[in-house]
Amino acid sequence: MERKKRIIRTLITISLIAGLIAVLYFSRDADPKNPHSTVPRETWIHGPKGHGYAVMNNQQPWKQCYECHEEQGLGGEVYCQSCHDQSGVKVEIPQKPADK
Predict the structure, then answer these.
(1) Is the pTM here over 0.70, yes or no?
(2) Any stretches that span the bilayer, and where are they (predicted)?
């Protein structure tokens, strides 16, 4: 019985170590400040679950997009509008409601 417990503990330890190594290996290229870093730029911009999907399902960009874009040095609403202008997209960017 003691031998079985020891074998099980050894297997669990090896599994945990392998899992840690896998997490470290796959996260080595990820930029922790950029949630889009694991997605290729072309896929993010034009893919089915990319920018357009995020915009259509996030009608409050001042809560989720602008702050992060500004931290990255890209700018907030101005950044979005400049990209839309360059690509010829005619869209009205949702505005932050005035505080009551």
Answers:
(1) no
(2) 7-26
